[in-house]
Amino acid sequence: MNKLPWDDLRIILAIARSGSLSGAQRALDVSHATVFRRLGNIEARLGVRLFERSRTGYTATTAGDDVAAAAQRVEAEVLEVERCIAGRDLRLSGTLRVTTTDTLLMGLLSPIFGGFQAAHPDIALEVAVSNLLFNLTKREADLAVRPTQTPPETLVGRKIGAIAQAVYVRSEGAPAESENADFGAFDWVGPDERLAYRPLESWMSAKGLDARCRYRVDTLMGMLAAVRDGVGAAVLPCYLCDGDEALTRVGGPISELATDLWLLTHPDLRRTARIRSFMDWVADEEKNYRSRLLGIA
After folding, report:
1. DSSP code of residue 95
2. Mean pLDDT, residues 180-187 taken together
3. How far apart are CA 138 and CA 152, in angstroms?
4. CA–CA distance, 83 with 148 (Å, rounded to integer)
5. Cβ neighbours, 10 Å, residue 234
6. With CB atoms 3.0 to 4.6 Å apart as the test, which of 18, 123, 138, 291 could cross-link to 296 if both were Cys?
7. What pLDDT score does 1 carry?
């Protein structure tokens, strides 16, 4: 009877998900040649073709679909076991992988993270900077620090603050009466569609500013750079911009664009000592930055 060990199932699942050997290679962090050789060995051992090869990639056969579906079920069981074991870890040591956005890291979290690592030298802190919400169920990260109004129902955590946003322009040439300035008089910098910043897009559209927006960027840090260089005005987080002499705030925080700040983890990991300690640390330190988050001068 031919056996399919977990390592073989991982290969099949990775190819099925990505539709290519190169995608599977990246997902598994192995060489292209290894994926090719392993797939050939698996198919030879089973005596069945699992994927149809074409110029556009690899498409699972009926047998391949069946094996990939089984592999997905096994993966879910393996990940659940890993999370349960990790959740029983009572030591303040080991590796902690945290994901957050570039703006939060640069404007708020870097000193907080640095302070935590200094206070807990036996914990290796890994920070993944991304505007995408990593899949915590698959252990792509242990924790997420994210701005969101709707945290995923599959995660647990706590709301640790609120983020205010306002309009900013370059200080050089800023209107003397910035509090009462006409937004329609500015050129604008807006979010590119890849940033998927729907609330800001809706706000700009409602204010009739789309026609004045001829420069779009797919990161908030890119929008900030454009404002500093005098390209136009933009809505940006107050914690990132207040105190920057190169920028001037126009008006107060925009209430409809306020966003909650969340600390999130998987339910199976919330009792892990290093995760509890990290969440408590960040929540406590955030209090020292609350006025900046709320845009209070």
Report:
1. E
2. 84
3. 14
4. 24
5. 27
6. 291
7. 47
pLDDT digits (tens, 9 = 90+) for 122-142: 999 999 988 766 555 556 788
- Domain extent, residue 56, equals 6-87
Residue whose structure tokens are 């705030």: 249
Distance between terminal CA atoms of the chain?
Answer: 72
Under 8 Å CB-to-CB from 242, ≥6 apart: which residues?
249, 292, 295, 297
**Residue 127 placed within a domain:** yes
The pLDDT-based confidence of 94 (bands split at 50, 70, 90) is: confident
- In angstroms, the CA 80 to CA 278 distance is 22
Instruction: Give the span between the Cα atoms of 210 and 194, in whole angstroms.
Output: 17
With residue 94 as reference, give the H or E element that holds it. strand 94-100
Domain count, the chain: 3
Total residue count of the chain as it appears in this document:
297
What is the chain's mean pLDDT, rounded? 87
C-alpha distances in angstroms, 212 versus 3, 31, 144, 184, 251?
63, 48, 35, 7, 19
Query: Quick check: is 1 in a domain?
Result: no
CATH of the domain at 67: 1.10.10.10
Q: Where are the alpha helices (DSSP H) in 6-163?
A: 6-18, 21-28, 32-46, 62-87, 102-104, 110-119
Contact 281, 116 (CB under 8 A): yes
Q: b/e map of 172-193 (b: 16 or more CB within 10 Å)?
A: eebeeeeeebebeebebbbbee
Please tell me the distance from the alpha carbon of residue 134 to that of residue 244, in angstroms, as a whole number: 31
pLDDT-derived band of residue 177, with 50, 70 and 90 as boundaries? low
